[in-house]
# Entry
Amino acid sequence: MHATLALSLAARAIAPAAAVEWVDVGADEQTRHYLDGATLARNGDVVRIDKRAVFTAPLSDGHELLPMTASESRGVVEVDCVLRVHRVVEIELFDAQGRSISRSGPMRRIWEDVTPGTPGARTMEVACTRTAAGR
# Structure
């Protein structure tokens, strides 16, 4: 049993990591948004996606004693292709050097409407189209 576990761990260590496929899904005033096309996973009407947001100007948390400034976020988003709603289910903030400065862990967020013409709408369009039946 220990040999099997060791072999399994060794195989994971040398297995190539899945390639990241960042797809630009637009920008707003403060952020450029990307989704990782390699992570699209559909379960019924819901697609789960890894997303990345790069801030045009670093965001500060406002703390005076131990300030944290985030340059980007990465997280997991779910979109419902039928109901046309989405939600963030996990998010992590990174500083300019790429170090993690805050992590939410799994979140129970409510579903929110997707506003047309936004990066969220483009995310839904790409995710739902790429994972549609028969593709």
Remarks:
- Residues 85 and 113 are 5 Å apart (CA to CA).
- Residues 2-14 form the longest helix (13 residues).
- The longest strand covers residues 46-60.
